[in-house]
Amino acid sequence: MRPDTPAENVDHTAEAARLERTAGLYPEDAEALLLRAAAHLELSGDRPAATALYDRLLSTAEGLANPSLVRALKASNLWEYDHEAEARAIIDGIRATAPRDPAPWVIVAEALEAHDELEAAEAAFTEAAALLLPEGGEPPRPTHPLLYGRHRVRRMRGLPHDDWDTLADTLHTSPITLDELHDPKRVWSLGSENPAELEAEIQRLRAELGAYREALSRPFPVAVLHWPAPELTELLSAYPALATEYDSHESHLSTIEASLRELASSGTPNLGIVTGTVPSYEAFAASEGSSPEDTSLLPQYATTLAARGRAVAWPPQRGADCWCGAGRSYGDCHGTPPPAPAV
Question: Quick check: pTM over 0.90?
Fold first, then answer.
């Protein structure tokens, strides 16, 4: 499914089946693909089938990149078709293990919120914020939903702002403030006969929808292909014709950074980097019925990796390691702007 396909035109059952078939072709990406398939099954209304996919993933939990995320999604799904006790048990287990990834916390807290467990939802958001937010530093983008969700629940509970609520207000960039978006009285405006109130609510909903669309677009960035040094050496040894694309590994890395900076300056959003491997690239070329030496395959390969959830957002968060894998912070590595040309 293309990212811009309208939701009403999607056959969720067929899309889930397609993703399951793709997962069979790319076992290294099965986790991401099967999670998307399960989401489509939930949207189709076949929640038991979605649970079966979550169980299938959890049966091989040792190989999962994020088992807590899978458990959280399973719990949320179970609660929606009257398996509340099992869902609560899973949620309690996730909170006890305190995962270091924000996503399971957001799903758990929003599941509690959706079932009017506002105090428990706020507690989950707060536990996650205390665990994952850096002291005195800028919160990484993946933690923003924790602060926004916590703000929303506290607003619904009628609690006064605290420091984290203020931080959430600061991070929020929509023209409609969080206090407006999270105002419990908004629901009354939907039944109003006052055109001005209805227009104001439409504007708020548009702003909220824009934020959701931005979040949903992030898994599908404009991605640039990166080859680690050993992979590039193996690639050029096996397919010498590709040397026309890569003078050296150092120039390859410089070209990546320069290309991303140029795209960013032109206003292109959601930029990312995907890391290639020779076996994966060879499998992709075979699936396209082409030779790996066909240079036109390289951007297609990058796009395919991005669509399979393999992209890492660029630029890295402040203080994070550089994308090149050198083990230095981005600011001390490729994040340093090149010197201006001599006049």
Answer: no
Amino acid at 326: A
Helix axes 67-80, 102-114, angle to 10 degrees: 10
Phi, psi at residue 223, to the nearest 5°? Answer: -115, 140
User: Does the pLDDT value for residue 293 go beyond 70?
Assistant: yes
Place of tokens 């036109």: 296
Instruction: List the one residue out of 98, 175, 171 whose CA is nearest residue 138.
Output: 171
Contact yes or no for 308/29 (Cβ under 8 A): yes
State whether residue 271 is helix, strand or coil.
strand
CB 311 within 8 Å of CB 219: yes
Contact between 66 and 98 under an 8 Å Cβ cutoff? The reply is no
Residue type, 30: A
> Tokens 């150092």 — which residue?
250
Helices (H), the chain: 12-25, 30-44, 47-58, 67-80, 84-97, 102-114, 118-132, 144-156, 163-171, 178-181, 186-189, 195-217, 229-238, 249-265, 278-287, 297-307
| Euclidean distance between CA atoms 251 and 254, whole angstroms | 5
CA separation for the pair 184, 328 (Å, rounded): 46
Nearest Cα to Cα of residue 112 among 64, 66, 79, 85: 79
Q: Which residues contact 278 (CB under 8 A, 6 or more apart)?
A: 231, 234, 235, 238
CB 182 within 8 A of CB 150: no
pLDDT tens digits, 92-114 = 999 999 999 999 999 999 999 99
